[in-house]
Amino acid sequence: MEKWYLEKHPDAIIRASEKIKEMIDNFKSVINLIDEEMVSNWVKDLVIIKTFIGLKFQEAILSKVAILLNTTYRLATPIEESKGIDGYIGDEAISIKSETYKSKMSLQEHINIKLIFYNKSKDGVTIDIENMI
Question: Per residue in 61-76, pLDDT tens?
C-alpha cells in the first residue's frame, strides 16, 4: 500500500510536510497576539451568537417540517440533546445536520434517529426530508 501510494504520489509526504510546517510557523507568529479579551470575544461569539442562531435555525426547520407533515414539533431538552436529538416532529426524535455531514457519516457514531439534512446558500435553505416521508 505504502509503495503503491508513493509511486503514484512521490511528492505527497514532502508537500504535506511543507504545508504543515507553514501552518505551524504562521501559528507561532500570531500566538502571542492572543490575549484574554480576544479569547473572551471568541467565546461570547461562539456561545451567545452562534448557539442562539443555531437553535433558532433548528427551530425554524422543525417548524417548517411539522407544517409540511401536518403535525407538531418541539425542541429537545438538554438531556435529549446529549443523545444527539435536536427536537421532535410529532413523536419522532430528529437530528438536524448540514448536508456536509453526509460525507462524514462513516466517521461518526451511529445515531439511531431520523435525520433532516439542510443546505444553506445565499438564496436560502434547502431541507431534505426524504427519510421523514
Answer: 999 999 999 999 999 9
